[in-house]
Amino acid sequence: MIFTEYFINRKTEALRKASGTRRLHYRALDDTRHILILCNVSDWKTVEACIHTLKAMKKNVHVCIYTLKQDPARIWDYGYLLVEANKDIDCWGFPKHYILEQLRHLPADMLLDLTGGACLAMRYLMLQHPAAFKVGAKHASDKDWYDFSIVMKDGMHDIPFLFRQVLNYLQMIRSKNP
Prior knowledge:
This protein has 6 helices and 6 strands; from the N terminus they run H-E-H-E-E-H-H-E-H-E-E-H.
């Protein structure tokens, strides 16, 4: 149970402002070998199709999945990091230290956030990851959280559309940073 979202909101806003000072490394899809996807377990079937597409393109894919509780029937891949709300999030809304450390050690040339921004703990994890290129959806009423974002209508959370657009634009980008 989370007492208040005040502290995690404050910390994520400070991290967002600080991330504006880091050097950006835009990457073309061809230059990207390791991709970290953040998602919610409720979107798993859609995200799984995205993962298969990336693996078919010979990309190494790691996934961080947010769930409300452990699903004992599901068998997760070794490269997937499961973040359980009742077990891995403290009473102030922050992910526990061991989750943060596990996430930081997942290699990623690009971080792709498919959560829709609804979960503050996942946004906090996204901001804490050292990936040089972060991609996600930006809603009209939202702030800039990513290095590269696709603008979506407010209230719209269309993962297939977002994924297709990200792939399309990243295939057009010519990277200066190999």
